[in-house]
Amino acid sequence: MTWVAAVAGLRARRETGVLVTVATVRGHAPRKAGAKLVVGRTETWGSIGGGNIEAVAIDRARELIGTPDPEPELMEFALNDKVTSRHGVQCCGGAVTVLLEPLPVVPAVAVFGVGHVGLELARVLARHDLDLHLIDTRPDMLTDERLDVLEDAVARIHVHHTPLLPEEVLAELAPGTHVLIMTHDHAEDAALCDAALRTTGLGSIGLIGSAAKWARFRKRLATEGGHDDATIDRINTPVGIAGITGKEPAVIAVSVAADLLRSFEQDRR
How far apart are CA 152 and CA 43, in angstroms? Predict the structure, then answer.
């Protein structure tokens, strides 16, 4: 497996890892600069030359995997018989610098409702390294032409057209996915709120709408849904940064995105 495929596999499985790269080589060394190794919690893919260099790099990579919010770092190796480690001696005669780059689990966001606000929000979030799920019951909201504005996305975008039961997508989402409910239909929003509260492992749950809408939803979630107050309080509404009161779709989208970015920072810590 190539290192590119290994990195993609870690991301798809939402597992942390470290990309190890031979950054510089002076003199003789097992591999040239650019050689790569991907380290996961229990597996490795590729090689930076084996022996002491690789074993020490793997040990340090796994320490980084277990560290909250790790930073990239360099390791230097002198390859001579005067330098020993717990993995032995490597005496090729040169010197090697290795770069370790942590590969975190990227955030995941599911936007239910890709209308004017949902699309503007998708445009902002698509600029960030995350998994972005776009869900709508209306096929005209998810056409290629309409989503062309996301063509240069950094995010990995997953489009779900669910004509009947959009709440079924909740079960497909990765643990920790942040959910935003902003569909065109209040009945659909209410069903999604109820289903989200019954879905274990989600991140934050946000609902767009007025105080009057939330008062009706809260009563319904308690009486018809049987949810207690603590459970209902998991739903954050209105979504966005307090104090930003503009109702234009782009203003709402920026406010909601900023609030989400704050949540991502809290998750990392």
Answer: 33
Residue 205, classed as helix, strand or coil, is: strand
Report the DSSP pairing between strands 95-103 and 73-78. Answer: antiparallel
What is the amino acid identity at position 78?
A
Asked whether 62 and 37 are in contact (CB, 8 A), the reply is no
**Using CA atoms, how far apart are residues 268 and 266, in angstroms rounded to an integer?**
5
- pLDDT band, very low/low/confident/very high, at 89 (cuts 50, 70, 90): very low
> Which alpha helices (DSSP H) does the chain contain, by range?
3-13, 51-65, 116-125, 186-198, 211-223, 229-232, 249-268
| pLDDT tens string 7-24 | 999 998 889 999 999 999
The model's pTM is 0.83
Q: What is the β-pairing status of strands 235-236 and 205-207? A: parallel
Rg (the chain; Cα; Å): 24
The Cβ of residue 261 has, within 10 Å, a number of other Cβ atoms equal to: 15
In 3D space, the residue among 123, 117, 105, 112 whose CA is nearest the CA of residue 240 turns out to be 117
- How remote is the C-alpha of 33 from its chain's centroid? 30
CB 35, CB 23: distance < 8 Å? no
Which residue in 16, 107, 14, 112 sits closest to 61, CA to CA? 16
